[in-house]
Each structure stands twice: as structure tokens, then as C-alpha cells.
Here is the input.
Amino acid sequence: MDIAWSRKRAVQYPKNPPGKKGVLSVLCKQKQSRAVFLTMKLDRFIRLAVALLILLVFVIAIAALLFVTESALNVWDRLVQGPRFLLYGYFAALAGLLLAAIWLVMRLVVKRRIPESRSSSQPLRQADIKKRLREAEKSGVGVEEARAELQELASRQESGSVHLCFFGEISTGKSSLIKALIPDADVAISAVGGSTIDIRHYRWRDNKGRQILLTDVPGSGGLEAGLDKVAEEEALRSQVVLFICDGDLTRTESLAVQRLLALEKPLILVMNKSDRYSSEEQSMLLERLLDHLGDLGSEFSNDQVVAVSAGGEIDAVQRQPDGSEEIVRRTRPADISVLVVAVNRLLEDDIDSLDVRRDRAVFRLAAAKLKEAEIEYRQQRATQIIRSSTRKAVIGALAAVSPGTDIIIQGFIGTAMTRELCRLFGAALRDLDIEEFLNLSQSRAGKALPLSLAVAGNGLKAFPGIGTVAGGVVHAVAYGLIFDALGRSLVLTLTAHGQLDPETAAKEFEDGISEHIEAGVRQVARMALDRDKGKD
Here is the structure.
């Protein structure tokens, strides 16, 4: 008993009592133990609460399931006992509601794809082109050039003439060949080269007496801008193309032949000025030209690659009887018989097939011109939409009591601008995409706001007589610049990708915001000043 009492005393009163630090450590240990105890109690409480919540949810789910089951069975009993049309109508209504729900979910969540355009390999029809022309004209697109192509095609179809287009680089002798074929033709020939600057037609007849129109087009590679396009368009309107060269094909000529072969119409490769070469050199050049055509993926017969000489006049040195020399002009005889044979042989085939190929090529040309007109219309209309939205943003900023720092001063302005531009470019339109694009752009515009304010201040200094510019006008110009940059970037994205990809559009907005802001500063500043003066 004494031993137990002494041990108890030793515990209560230790032999060596701790110092001040020892007391603190003991107290800390006691607090830590209490904290651990409280944590254990709290953890147990949380687990108990979660368990009760799960139990409650389970009970509610069971009750809801029982309620729905009972309601469904009651409805089913009544429908079975009722007339058949009520049963079928009920399930039809349920199916309609289900389809409507699926449609709404797909519209909100799934991105709609833009229908792909008709493949270029699939032949176009005149009815398709006319339908597109009517739709484009209703939208305000200029369709004059595309419609003129169809009218020219109708005129050529009515005349029944066959058009042979002489195509080639300048100074290869296209006009000289026509002069050799039709000696009485009034063909302008220049020793400098590039004398043909417009399209000219000359009448000729084949061995069957059919009227052939020889078309002389501007030579490619000249200094006049746009003549290459004029020549290629006339090649599209013709039934047969004669490509004129004066030796082995250069890289530029090879590219031109490749483009002409893509027109899917007969082509004759004519090597002019063959009298400059010997017979062996001519054979070697013709074989090389055939190899070039084979490398381009086309199969040509030997009679589709010919060597001719248009003749003409040359300067020659003639020695006189007294020993002096004199330069005289001598006429070189033309040698074009092989070309005449090649053309007649080609035209011996079915002329209708040549007309069909010509018509398809003209349809593609009309479609290309219509597409150019649509692109131009979209750019003009997009500029109007951006300018109108920018003006609204400027007015909203001037009317605001305390302008913020967001890109969208008024949310509906940015949404309306994005929606109009997407519809203009036929892009897939979803409210979620528009919201995401504006949110992403807003975060990027916040970084560019100081730049916009600086550019706005400098831009306003360019207008004399305005004095000290109020801060509200500067902020209005800054917001207008951001709207203008946002619209420009969105147009670039829609033009390049054809659809609204929020991340891509916002990234392009961030990359080009500095350039767009500087480009539109004077226009936006003028809007703000005009509006501010009008308000005063």
C-alpha cells in the first residue's frame, strides 16, 4: 500500500519539476491532444451528416420513383380503358416532346456544320448557276459579270461557230500565225512583242467549210496588269486552245499549260519559229515537249504537238556587185500545213462534245465570278456592320456615367454584331459560341485597353481646334477602337475558316488587335467628336 501511494505521489509531484519551457511544452501537448480529439469528433459528425444526407436522398428518390410509377400506371390504365386514338395520340405527344428536347440540346451543345459546297469535279449545270444568280441578286450581290458570261455563251451557242484560242507568252508569234492562216486579216504585228492588248476574232474555214473563229488574246508575261486573266478567261470560252511556244517550255509556260489542261478541253501545243532549228533539233524539241506534257499527267498524241513557222520578214545582208554590203528585208515562207492538218483532224471529232466541254468551262467561269462578287459584297456589308456597331459602342460609352473596362460596353451590341457577321458569312451560329467568343475576347481586350486609350489620345490630337479632350471622349474612342478591332478580326476568321470557332477567333483578335486599333483610330475618333458635338 505504501508502495502504491508513493508511486501516485511521484506522478502528481515529479521529483524534478520542469522549468518554464517544460511547462509550455506540456501545455502545447495538452492542446494538441484536445485538438485531435475535437477533430475526431468533427470528422465523425461530418460522416454522420453525409450518411444522413445520402439516406434522405435515397428516401426522396424512392418516393419520387413510387410516385412516378403510380402515376404512370394510373395513366396507362386510363389510356387502355379509353379509346385507341387517345392512347396513340398520347404517345405521339410524348415522342414529339422527346424529339423537341433532343433538338434543343443538339442546337445548344452540338456545333452545326456548314454544308460543303459542290465538288469542283462535279460538273455544274446552267440551271444551278441561274438559281445562284437569282438568290445572290436578291441579297444585293452584283451579278452583272457572271450573267454576262452566260449571255456570251448563249450568243456563241446560237451562232454555232467554233472558237480556237491562240494562247501563249508574248513574242511567241501568235498574231503571226493567224496572219499566216488568214493572209487578208488585219492583224497588228509588232517587232517589240506584246502588240495584242485586247481580244480579237478572225474568221477562218476548215476543210469542211465550217466557220472557225481564230481568237487572238494578249500574251502572258507582259507588263500590262490583268491581261493574263483576260487571256485565261477567253481560253475558257473557246472550244479548242492552241498553246504557242518558240522552243522548250519554260517554268512559266509549264505552269500555264498545266492550268489550261485543267480546263478539260482539247489543246494543241504549237512550237513556232521552227525554221531556226535543224531537223534533228526539231525532233529533239518535239520529243521533249511530249515528255513535259507526260510529266503534267496528260496523254497527247504526236499530232497534237506540231512544229510550224509563221514566216514573216527578216533582215539579211546582201553584197552588192561593187563589193559593198546592204541590209535588205527578205520574206520567209510560212510552213503551217501541219497545224492546219492537226486542227482539221481535231475538228473531225464530234463537235457536240467540244461544245459540252466549252459550256462546262463557262459555267465554272461564271461561278468563279459570282463567288468573287459575293466575297466583295460580304466585305462591304461587313464593313457597314462593324461601323454601325462601333458607332453604337461610342454612343454607349459617351452616355455611360462611369465607363467600365470591358470590351462590351453594352452586351447586346457585341452579340448583335457577332450574330450579323456570322449570318453574313453563312457560319454556324450558336448562342454558346457567341457568348464564349465574347468572354474570351473580353479578357484579351482588358489587356489592350491601355493601348487603346493611348492610341485614342494620340488620334484625337490629329484633329485641330478641339482643345483639351475630356476623359469621356477618350474612353469612347478607346471602346470604339476595341469594337472595330473585334469586328475586323472576326471577319478575318470567318473568311479563313467559314465558321465561328471561339478560341481561334479570340486568338486572332489578340494577335491583330494592335494593328486593327491603329488602322481605325481616325474614323472612330471622328465618330466620337461628331457625337460629342451633337450632344452639346
The longest strand covers residues 312-319. Strands lie at 162-168, 200-205, 211-216, 240-245, 267-271, 305-307, 312-319, 325-332. Residues 25-105 form one domain.
